[in-house]
Design a protein that fits this description.
Elements lengths: L5 H14 L18 H16 L5 H17 L3 H13 L3 H14 L1 E3 L2 E3 L12 H17 L12 H13 L10 H15 L10 E8 L2 E9 L21 E4 L33 E7 L3 E2 L5 E9 L8 E6 L4 E3 L1 H10 L2 E6 L3 E6 L5 E10 L3 E4 L3 E5 L2 E8 L3 E4 L1
Parallel strand pairs: 7-17
Antiparallel strand pairs: 1-2, 3-4, 3-5, 6-8, 8-13, 9-12, 9-15, 10-13, 11-12, 14-17, 15-16
Length: 406
């Protein structure tokens, strides 16, 4: 349990109230002198929900925010705004406001196999877009729909949508156990907590078990204690075979929700590998060029990097991971010069790569750095990657180069 200074929360609420415009909205600092955009509306929805969740001191500002969102929700069909509006209205005990927004959300649901999601047409206030923005939005919608599914109701009309949305969220968990960005992860966890807290009476936590079966072979019986458990890892590699494999987790009927994740690691030769976005127009571009790949020990080698967004999808931080050969000594002064010149915001030097944080405003960002090989080799550097900090699905990879050092 962490104690939060209530005075700090009060001051933050007061600051937010002072930033509210006369029409009940909030605007991003860099857009205050421009016509409002969908991104500004989403920011207003987020701030209104924050005020609704954190106390009644800002009741007048909350009322104006709800009135603004009520007008905007009739004008645009943006599920992030609608879900935030419905949640804020529910927090404010104004369920009549929430009903039209929830009804719109039902109509905006999209199906993909046995899952359900809600598409984001703009960027979230935290720059989420693409699949990361879709996860962030779907998690908010699931929370909004769950508000109408309390344990006292015998029938929940949105149960199918909620279950489909939850399955979509669980399927998008990455190998590290999170969901792309911090805000997307927070929203997903909030959605799961909202659903688990509304389990039917009689499904309270207790000791249960789950059987892991691979290709019809029993592997292990897991003992689950309590509603929430630390992750349990099971190595099933010895039970796998070439071709299709079937993995089953068997539990008794009527138990509370539980999530299972399968993580596979494998190697694919560069000669047969395909870019992640091979079947679609890439969102990013990365060029990495070395002035020479054949050199002597301690010769200076210059790496020139160009990174760019293509089109108008997304906004915000980009991370470039530039592969370097084994044992290379990176000149941090050359990287610091790139920071001073502007294109590079921050950097980290790792044993096999240089990680660079970029925030391109328009066009192409270019920079260079130098390094010196410390010993002889005939080896490849690590592959180089550029990806969106707020939507890691948007990525481009540059294959490694062969360095011959004598």
């Amino acid at each position: 349990m962490m104690t939060v200074d209530q005075d700090v929360l009060k001051e933050a609420r007061e600051w937010l109230v002072k930033q509210q415009r006369s029409d009940g909205s909030w605007r991003r600092d860099y857009s205050k002198d421009q016509a409002p955009t969908a991104a500004d509306d989403l920011l207003s929805a987020y701030v209104t929900r924050v005020l609704a969740r954190t106390g009644s001191e800002a009741s007048d500002a909350l009322k104006r925010g709800l009135e603004f969102l009520g007008r905007e929700s009739q004008r645009i069909d943006e599920p992030y705004l609608l879900a935030s509006y419905a949640l804020a209205a529910s927090e404010a005990k104004d369920t009549e406001r929430a009903k039209p927004a929830v009804e719109k959300l039902r109509k905006l649901a999209l199906e993909e196999g046995n899952t359900t999601y809600w598409a984001l047409e703009s960027n979230t206030p935290f720059h989420g877009w693409g699949l990361a923005g879709r996860v962030e939005t779907t998690a908010l919608v699931v929370q909004a729909l769950a508000e109408d599914c309390n344990p006292q109701r015998a029938v929940c009309v949105d149960r199918k949508l909620i279950n489909g949305g939850l399955l979509f969220l669980l399927k998008e968990k990455d190998p590290r156990g999170v969901w792309f960005s911090t805000q997307a992860t927070v929203n997903v966890l909030d959605a799961m907590l909202a659903l688990f807290s509304k389990n039917r009476p009689g499904t309270a936590a207790g000791q249960t078990s789950a059987d892991v079966v691979v290709n019809g072979n029993p592997v292990q019986t897991l003992q689950l204690n309590g509603r929430f458990n630390n992750p349990i890892t099971v190595d099933i590699s010895q039970f796998l075979k070439v071709g299709k494999n079937r993995i089953e987790i068997k539990r008794q009927q009527g138990l509370p929700f539980a999530s299972v994740q399968a993580v596979a690691k494998y190697y694919v030769p560069w000669s047969i590998s395909k870019p992640a976005n091979a079947n679609s127009k890439p969102d990013l571009r990365l060029d990495v060029k070395f002035d020479k790949t054949e050199a002597k020990i301690n010769d200076e080698i210059t790496c020139r990097v160009e990174a760019a967004r293509i089109g108008f999808r997304g906004y915000g931080m980009l991370l470039a991971e530039i592969g370097i050969p084994p044992g290379a000594e990176v000149d941090r002064g050359s990287l610091q010069a790139a920071v001073k010149e502007g294109p590079v915001k921050q950097y980290d030097v790792l044993p096999d790569r240089v990680v660079v944080y970029l925030w391109p405003t328009a066009g192409t960002v270019s920079f260079s750095f130098t390094f010196r090989p410390r010993f002889g080799m005939n080896a490849k550097n690590a592959a180089s990657t550029l990806y969106d900090y707020y939507n890691p699905e948007a990525a481009v990879v540059v294959p490694p180069s062969v360095f011959k050092i004598q």
